[in-house]
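Hi everyone, sorry if this is the wrong subforum. Our group has a chain we'd like a structural model of before ordering constructs, and none of us has done structure prediction before. Sequence below.
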Amino acid sequence: MYRYVECEKFEGKTCRTGGSTERSIAALKHLPKVGKLEYVRGYIYKGRGTTHAAVLVRGDLGSMRFGGFSWGYYGTGCRGLQSLLNKLGVSVGEGEDVESIADLAPWACDTVGEYWRITFGEKGLVQVA
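Answer:
Right subforum, don't worry. Here is the predicted structure as tokens:
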């Protein structure tokens, strides 16, 4: 089972991080390793002493967790999320922002849980929740 989680070197140790949009976009080249898409979801989780936003792509062969993609504000994280959704075949039209695709709510740093999910079926995208 393939598993990708963003990490970086800090004081000589490899540690998981909140991620960077640049690293997340560079990792998109590994998306085929997760196999047939099942879902992509945005969520907030409790890390060491703080909360983090993450986007998880799940397929039948594995998963990828991106810490550099965000939603609910205008910045590089949202543009990175738009790149991911485009790569997955979820259309983001001219003049539309990522929030209009999945009606993504701004996230609150202290509220842990799933904020949105896009489920894929036999014929592609089947549900946005």
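For your construct planning: The first strand starts at residue 2 and ends at 5. The CA atoms of residues 43 and 114 lie 4 Å apart.
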